Fold this sequence. Notes:
Number of domains: 2
Number of strands: 10
Structural class: alpha/beta
Strand order of the largest sheet: 1-2-4-3-5-6-9-10
Helix content: 25-40%
Number of helices: 16
Largest sheet: 8 strands, mixed
Order of helices and strands: EEEHEHEHEHEHHHHEHHHHHEHEHH
Distance between the termini: 46 Å
Amino acid sequence: MTPTLPPIPLPPSIRSRYVEDINGLRMHVLEAGFESKGRPCLLLLHGFPELAYSWRKVMPALAEAGYHVIAPDQRGYGRTTGWQADYDGDLHPFRLTNLVRDALGLVSAFGYRQVDAVIGHDFGSPVAAWCALIRPDVFRAVVMMSAPFGGPPSLPFNTADAPTRPQAEDPVHRALATLPRPRKHYHWYYSTREANADMHRAPQGVHDFLRAYYHHKSADWKANKPHPLKAWSAEELATLPTYYVMDLAKTMPETVAEEMPDPAVIAANRWLPDDELAFYSSEYTRTGFQGGLQWYRCGTSGAFNAELQTWSGRTIDVPSCFISGKQDWGTYQRPGVFEAMQTRACTAMIGYHLVDGAGHWVQQEQPAKVSLLLLDFLRKATAAR
């Protein structure tokens, strides 16, 4: 029996509901534009450490434009249940192709054979990209936000007479650890056994941990001045802020605590006031972080690259768009991917936009601008089909 949970602080035009039997999940969904039938559908996919709630500021505008807007708590998150996040458990349910299956099952449950666009932010961005790559007949346009998509992993070629050797561990991690200021990449930290407990039992508490984390990655942290990196090397990666390339001996709560905003800055925050942050912190206090961390582990383990190589050489051919904050390092954190997305991975890219006054949480920091960009893209994508 599902415990009674407190209501979600939502605008009146958004409702919270559950949808049963979605690829083994009881999926919690936020929904706008549900008042009338026959509307075109948009699917919004959040990232880490976020929730469907992260879309609350753009959903009303999209619904007012005539769309049925669906935003789930994804597998491993929030009020969606049916997943297990034991560190020693099975990672297969969290691999990208199964997350696409979750998305496909959800829109099918609502009766849609096609959706006008799938829109993903942060780790939701690669899920959205893979939705469009694998099922372009269903997901007829895609918006990737804050995490560019460089295409599927390549298959090895010309190996009949010179077999490939097993891939060695990426030497960049050893190089990072031996820098004069030893560092580590946050993806690999998030893949450790300790990461969930570090954050779930943060010395400052989950609420203050999330406050500092969101602040550090936002445009409010004035040192966020991103630029392209020259190479995937320890020296270049070490120029990233510590929320991406951490000091070797520090946890994420210790890392962001150094940039905790003072009470006056918190009180002045309009894009994430404390009562809204309290919803995130209450949900993560209840669930922990391991469900989302499993996604990172799927990537860093390399265990599912062979499956993704099934689509090697395939491109995203539906209309596509990229939106990020101008102060968001996520656009450049993996050298060359932003450029590869525009030149190779997407063949029908309508635009890419870096929104000034936004860091990583672009649809929360600048919701009016993002809403306008999304609606403009949807108009152009419809005209292009």
